[in-house]
Design goal:
The protein is α/β, with parallel strands linked by helices and 312 residues long. 31% of the residues lie in helices and 14% in strands. The chain has 2 domains: 2-94 and 278-298, 3-Layer(aba) Sandwich (Rossmann fold), CATH 3.40.50.720; 96-274, 3-Layer(aba) Sandwich (Rossmann fold), CATH 3.40.50.720. The strands form 2 sheets. Strands 7-6-8-9-10-11 form a 6-stranded parallel beta sheet, with helices on one face. The chain has a 5-stranded parallel beta sheet with strand order 2-1-3-4-5, covered by helices on one side.
């Protein structure tokens, strides 16, 4: 059984791999491309993610299972994978705690305007009053995408006394469905985007949605940058009705220095660092891969099997 796997995970994986596995360990895109040519199993995560798509498209006919530590599959050639009939297991949950904590930080930073506190510090000023005075207690949050990350965000916000409403496709566990959240945008102090990236989520927050939000409300995006219409967001921020925006992802990435989002008022950009703000990514991803490898070889159900038609 041939596999192509990332060299940074070698120390975690190799002692636990079956003796009959023939592994090509890669450190660069050309090595991943060479290794996947004969592989049945591929874990070819790379940055930038276009290298992942390039490697998968060059795979040979033996490819049966692609593993990734990424939760979102928007960078993957899903049509190619569907044509191959390949199994794809994603990294849902691997970075969930770190990303959820980052989202809560975004809410707190917005509530207390900690960005302005830091600017005062840099100017060596001693403000006579606090720039942000919102308490999270008794506010309301809408979490669009109440999956592994969204649920963790909700649990943490509830500890602050925030009333949380989640959005899911099925409306499970007291959440609302995608056809219902727009009509209720005016109820919420915090609108948090935690949904997977699909064709349906592109520019899901535009001028109409921003206009429907509660005056002074904040939008927190820890999902994908293309979920927000940037021109509409900048106009809403400049108009002063929107409380602010905390953006971890942007579109494009990296955000060019001349992009107007950098200069938009009350816009905090955190350079897509949420998933990197932890030290356990490879340990969790490696453990997940090994569990799935055992299940794959035994013909048993695997964890985090993606729905390629849905895109996540």
């Amino acid at each position: 059984m041939k596999a192509v796997l990332p060299a940074p995970a070698r120390a975690l994986l190799e002692p636990h791999l079956p003796a009959d596995m023939d592994v090509a360990w890669f450190t660069a895109p050309d090595e991943a491309t060479a290794g996947i040519a004969e592989a049945e199993i591929a874990w070819v995560d790379m940055t930038p993610t276009r290298h992942v798509a390039d490697a998968i498209r060059s795979a040979g006919p033996r490819l049966k299972w692609v593993s990734t530590l990424y939760a979102g599959l928007d960078a993957f050639p899903l049509d190619d994978l569907k044509r191959r009939g390949a199994i794809v297991t994603n990294g849902t949950g691997v970075n969930a705690i770190a990303v959820a904590e980052y989202a809560v930080m975004g809410v707190l930073v917005g509530a207390k305007r900690f960005d302005e506190v830091l600017r005062a510090h840099d100017r060596q000023e001693w403000p006579k009053d606090a720039p942000g005075k919102l308490e999270l207690f008794e506010t309301k949050a809408l979490i669009v995408g109440h999956g592994a990350i969204g649920r963790l965000i909700g649990e943490r916000l509830q500890a602050f006394g925030v009333a949380v409403t989640g959005v899911t496709r099925s409306g499970r566990d007291g959440t609302i469905t995608p056809d219902a959240w727009r009509a209720r945008l005016g109820e919420y102090d915090w609108v948090i985007l935690a949904a997977p990236s699909t064709g349906d989520t592109k520019a899901m927050i535009g001028a109409d949605e921003l206009a429907a939000m509660k005056p002074g409300a904040w939008i927190v995006n820890i999902a994908r940058g293309d979920m927000i219409d940037d021109d509409a967001l900048i106009a809403a921020l400049e108009g002063g009705r929107l409380g602010g925006a905390f953006l971890d992802p942007t579109n494009p990435e990296p955000l060019p220095p001349e992009h107007p989002l950098w200069r938009a008022p009350r816009c905090i950009i955190t350079m897509h660092l949420s998933g990197r703000s932890q030290t356990k990514m490879f340990q969790r991803a490696g453990a997940l891969f090994l569990r799935n490898l055992a299940a794959y070889r035994a013909g048993e159900a695997m964890e985090n099997v993606a729905d390629l038609a849905a895109g996540y």
